Amino acid sequence: MPQMPEQNELTPPKDGRLARGEATKDRVLDAAERCFAAHGFATVTIRQIAREAGVTLGVVSFHGGSKEELFATVLARRTATLNALRTDALKALQARGGITIRDLVDAYLTPYLEIASRGDPQWRAYAQLIARIVSDDQYYMQVRDLYDPVAQDFIAEMRRIYPDASAKAVATVLTLTVASMLSIVASRVRIAGLSGEPASESALDYRLTLVDFCTGGIEQALAAP
Amino acid sequence: MPQMPEQNELTPPKDGRLARGEATKDRVLDAAERCFAAHGFATVTIRQIAREAGVTLGVVSFHGGSKEELFATVLARRTATLNALRTDALKALQARGGITIRDLVDAYLTPYLEIASRGDPQWRAYAQLIARIVSDDQYYMQVRDLYDPVAQDFIAEMRRIYPDASAKAVATVLTLTVASMLSIVASRVRIAGLSGEPASESALDYRLTLVDFCTGGIEQALAAP
DNA sequence: AAACTATCTGAACGTCCGTATAAAAAGTCA
DNA sequence: TGACTTTTTATACGGACGTTCAGATAGTTT
Questions:
Q1: In this model, does residue B189 exceed pLDDT 50?
Q2: Domain range holding A217?
Q3: Which label site among A73, A104, A168, B119 has the fewest CB atoms less than 10 Å from its CB?
Q4: Which residues of A, range 10-39, sit inside 8 Å of B by Cβ?
Q5: Which 8-state DSSP code applies to residue A205?
Q6: How far is B56 from chain A (nearest CA, A)?
Q7: How does residue A13 score in pLDDT terms, banded at 50, 70 and 90?
Q8: Chain B closest-CA separation from residue A113 CA (Å)
Q9: Across all strands, nucleotide nearest B63 (CA–C1')
Q10: DSSP B136-174
Q11: Mean pLDDT across the stretch A108-113?
Q12: 3-state secondary structure of A14
């Protein structure tokens, strides 16, 4: 990593150089986000990212560090926002009370579907990148730190609804729910191919079907024998 | 590709050279299958495959052709067997009659879970490789040819059970079912991490939960509004 | 044995990769 | 202006990659 020009909140008189540096750093991270989302970590080259960002080769290393550091930075950059959307939805349910499984499923899935449907192509790329890495155990150590804490909150609430279900069963159905959610982004072309109709533009078009599927699935899988 | 020594069924007097060639070709394909399954296409190198197979570099090209041809060969090699298992299960249901959604789900999922649980490490590797590529639209053109025909047979049967469901809804729930199935193989580490218990050794241990989840999900998603 | 084919070896080729770095450019501050 | 810092350029390096191929080896056929 470079000199990491910190932007102190208490010193608003920004150096023009630092401002420019931050801007190009964002361009690099955005370009990396799009590239990693579209082709995966191994396939993408630093030179591709540089070209996509409109900068020269050295700039990518200067602002992004090594390829692995760049990848980790891109992954972590938007996580707090997504986690906050989910946590806020969960807190709203807890404040209201009378939580159903459908409520929980919807609170977990909808924030992701929304960022995947946003006009902002960077958020769409981020959603696609998540779909790439969460469904691959090779990246689990990174996923664990980024997403599992919030997932555990939802698991705790699910166990309150199904107190007799085993820990493994609850963890399994949550993982199946996540896999289903990600496939809406990762396998949209296949859905189109199988149905013979063109793919929907927005991931939110699948929201009802997806929430129904996961809700019905959890209810059936965790129902008392 | 090399000279492709064809083994004619009508000429059993095999050339000893061809027999040896076929044997090392199998060693190469097996090694490639394990490598691609464990690390994905881009990460794996021909030299890794050669080392894993215990042969020198040139042999991999000689028997496997280019890296892409080798990948395609490995993908296609076991497809007919898996497709036959699913088709046979479907035919048995059709002969019996009175098909339920649970029957269909079980007939589609169980063959995969079984090959993923087999003692044979090559079949396990193949199952892992499928999980890698089917959930990635980047490989859809290959997936379409290999797996979609059988998937269409199951879709046709589902539409018989839910005649009022839209084509897109049926294609969606089948894709969600497939994604859930694959995640049993691809995300077993995450399930273990979320539940706090060690991962099950066999994918078949998740069969009941998985079939319940997908059955309940389809019933809920396709139920008449 | 000799001619022939299939298989394998070992080494090389050109290309692209990630990373590092010296020097130039741009901007700030005294 | 000139000292100073941050950013950008241009280039280079060592290594690993996929692929190719002449020649050695093993096995078959006549």
A1: yes
A2: 78-222
A3: B119
A4: 39
A5: G
A6: 25
A7: very low
A8: 15
A9: C7
A10: -GGGHHHHHHHHHHHHHHHHHHHHHH-TTS-HHHHHHHH
A11: 98
A12: coil
Give per-residue pLDDT as tens, B122-143. Answer: 999 999 999 999 999 999 999 9
Give the pLDDT confidence score for residue A1 in this predicted structure: 42
Closest Cα in chain A to B184:
A176
Asked if residue B68 is part of any domain, the answer here is yes
pLDDT band for position A145 (cuts 50, 70, 90): very high
Q: Note whether A204 contacts B: Cβ–Cβ < 8 A.
A: no
Residues B89 and B59 in one domain: no
Neighboring chain A residues of B171 at a CB cutoff of 8 Å: 191-192, 194-195
What is the DSSP-derived secondary structure letter of residue A15?
Answer: -
Tell me the pLDDT band of B22, cut-offs 50, 70 and 90: confident
pLDDT at B6 over 70: no
B61 with B113, same domain? no
Report yes or no on B185 lying in a domain: yes
Q: Do B32 and B49 meet the contact criterion of CB atoms below 8 Å apart? A: yes
Instruction: Compute the mean pLDDT over every residue in chain B, rounded to the nearest whole number.
Output: 92
CB-based contact A44:B138 (threshold 8 Å):
no
Examine residue B9 and state whether it is found in any structural domain, yes or no. Answer: no
Check whether A86 has a pLDDT greater than 70: yes
* Angstrom distance (rounded) from CA A123 to CA A117: 8
What are the tokens at B146?
A: 């290999």
As a whole number, mean pLDDT of residues A131-154 equals 96
Count of structural domains within chain A: 2
- Average pLDDT along chain A: 92
Question: Is the model's pLDDT at B116 over the cut of 90?
Answer: yes
Other CB atoms within a 10 A radius of the CB of residue A140 amount to 18
DSSP codes, chain B: --------TT--S--HHHHHHHHHHHHHHHHHHHHHHHH-TTT--HHHHHHHHT--HHHHHHHH-SHHHHHHHHHHHTHHHHHHHHHHHHHHHHHH----HHHHHHHHHHHHHHHHH-S-HHHHHHHHHHHHHHT-GGGHHHHHHHHHHHHHHHHHHHHHH-TTS-HHHHHHHHHHHHHHHHHHHHTHHHHHHHHSSPPPS-GGGGHHHHHHHHHHHHHHHHS--
Whether B143 and B133 have beta carbons less than 8 Å apart is answered as yes
Residue A39 sits in a domain of what CATH number?
A: 1.10.10.60
One-character DSSP codes across A152-187: HHHHHHHHHH-TTS-HHHHHHHHHHHHHHHHHHHHT
Same-domain check for residues B91 and B58 = no
